Each structure stands twice: as C-alpha cells, then as structure tokens.
Amino acid sequence: MLVAGFPTGSFQANCFVLAPEAGGPCVVVDPGEGSEQPLDELLREHRLDPVAVLLTHGHFDHIFAVTPVCDGKDIPAWIHPDDRLLLSDPMRGLSTDARQFFGGFFGGRIQLREPREVRDLTDGGSLELAGLTLTVDHTPGHTRGSVTFRSATATGQGLLVSGDTLFAGSIGRTDLPGGDHEQLLASLRDKILVLDDETTVLPGHGPATTIGRERASNPFLHGLAAPGRPRGL
Asked: Which pTM does this prediction carry?
C-alpha cells in the first residue's frame, strides 16, 4: 500500500493519500487549509488519480479544502451525517471564544460550502474505493460524527487513520460543541484498543504511532483496555 501525507495550514492537520500502489487510483483523507497545491504535487509525484475524499470529522482544520478538491476533481466527499452540517457552517463546531478568535484569524467568519456530491459514512460500513477496502468505525467524542478508517497492507499489517480521536501520546479534545469526554473514552476502549498492537496509527495531527505504543505509554489510555482477544483488521 502507498501511504503519503503532509501537514496542512495554520493548525498542521494531516492530509493523507492512500492507494494500493503508485500509478493508479487513490483516496484523499482530510484536505485541510492550503492543501490543494501540495496535494496536486503529491498526486503528480506518484501518478495518482483520486476517486474520493474521506473526512474523519467536520472541524474546519480538516475540511477547509474539501470543496475545491472535490469539485475540482469531480469526486465525492464522504462524512458521517452527524458532522455534515459542519461542511457548510464550520463555526458550529467552535466555542464562542473560539469563534471570535478564529473568525478574526480568518478575516471575520469562516465561510465554506458543501462539495457538489456528499455521501454518508456508516458505522461498521465497508468502503471499496480505489482498490482499497476501508472499514469505517464511528468514534464519537471529539465530535459527534468522528470516524476512523482501518485497512490492512499487502503484508496483513493493520493501518488506522484515527483523525482527532487518537494521537501519539494524547487523545482528542472534548471541550468544543459536540465533544463528550466519556463518549471519547468509550470510543477508544471499544473501537481503538481492540486493534492489534502492531497496527500503525495515522493521526489527524502529529507523527504516526502504533496501537501497542499508545497502549503502553499514552496516559489517557491507562485502564481503558477492553478484555478479550485484540481484533485484527
């Protein structure tokens, strides 16, 4: 599997490209602020043709460029229905103080619109896109519609695109509208910590990690491990 990515914009949200191999179709995950040019360069470098954009959640640092990317390439965006409203009104996902701060940061108000084609992600659903099989897990807590995407490499090793649910050494914040700390802990326990330790994690911000590394060292995960055999991908 080809996995490539880069941090985007003021908040360094990770944008990823996933493909079976170079020189074919791919999917794009979370095209954030200013991602259009580096994304096009990455696609040219690997001779890739995107067929869809997948969104881990609706916060503006992860969806900022979804409309120009999707409409410019005539491809759909996939998002959980609980976060769909954030595509056209990202201010809904911010606290009052954050709205004032970020609104000023972006010149008054963050104004976005939906791409021409938007499709719904469903919990436990399997997406067959670009020659990849991606399983969608609804992991609410950071936002109501947060999801993760999991797949496996050609060697069978697990791969998890975790969005802002899990980071290297940390977890997603829950103090914004739609956030729920107890719900996030339940998502981590029931959907994330049941994965194999060798699973590579691609988070929404910061460096890659593994489930085993986070299980052993992430202070927010201590005491959350679910009983039973880890679930493979």
From this structure: 0.91
